[in-house]
Structures are given as C-alpha cells and as structure tokens.
Design a protein that fits this description.
The protein is mainly beta and 116 residues long. 0% of the residues lie in helices and 54% in strands. The strands form 2 sheets. Strands 2, 4, 5, 6, 9, 10 and 11 form a 7-stranded mixed β-sheet that branches. The chain has a 4-stranded antiparallel β-sheet with strand order 1-3-8-7, with no helix packed on it. The mean pLDDT is 97.
Length: 116
C-alpha cells in the first residue's frame, strides 16, 4: 500500500537547522510532484515548498525562501527538506504530500519545535 513516512523532526533552538526526510513506497515516486506542507498549533495547513518530478524546478513560500531547501532522490524514493535559520514561527507539524495522476497522498507528519 502507499506509504509516506516523515522523519527528522525534533526540538531545535532558534537559528538552528534540521533536515526532514520523507520515505515513499507503494507508488512510482519519480512520477509524482512532491510538496511539504505544515500546520502550526491552532492554524490551518500552510504550503511550504514543492518540487517537480525530476527535481528540475522548486518552489517556496515567501516565509521560508532563502532558509529552506527542498530536494528529492528518486533512486531512494525519498523527499527532503533542509531547514536552516529556524525561527519560532516555523514550529509546526510538517507533512509530505505526493500529487499526480489524479491521486494525492499524505504522510502522518513530523513535529518540528523551535524554542530556546
């Protein structure tokens, strides 16, 4: 069955870094447009970043541009999000999402907490 499993979240101080991973299985990862979406406490879902199937194009929300980098390894069926210069406003549950061919899949999320 389709699975998206995020990992790499945790507690980090402001200004710190984390690298999130999303391991995909059960579908042809390289054929899907991948994204990271987050949800802060008490807020709705916020799109963070997306990447084309072959990694040739990437997109970022203004709030993370210049600090976050999305990437993918289609040979490993894995999506990444490198997060630098983290701020308290980045505290959220981070989800990976796969979209394509009329389907959409979500992971269970990983918690990122930025606090001193």
């Amino acid at each position: 069955q389709v699975q998206l499993v995020e990992s790499g979240g945790g507690l980090v101080q402001p200004g710190g870094s984390l690298r999130l991973s999303c391991a995909a299985s059960g579908f042809t990862f390289s054929s899907y447009y991948m994204s990271w979406v987050r949800q802060a406490p008490g807020n709705g879902l916020e799109w963070v970043s997306s990447i084309y199937r072959d990694g040739s194009n990437t997109y970022y929300a203004d709030s993370v541009k210049g600090r976050f980098t999305i990437s993918r390894d289609n040979a490993k069926n894995t999506l990444y999000l490198q997060m630098n210069s983290l701020e308290s406003e980045d505290t959220a549950v981070y989800y990976c999402r796969a979209a394509g061919w009329g389907y959409e899949y979500w992971g269970q999320g990983t918690q990122v907490t930025v606090s001193s």
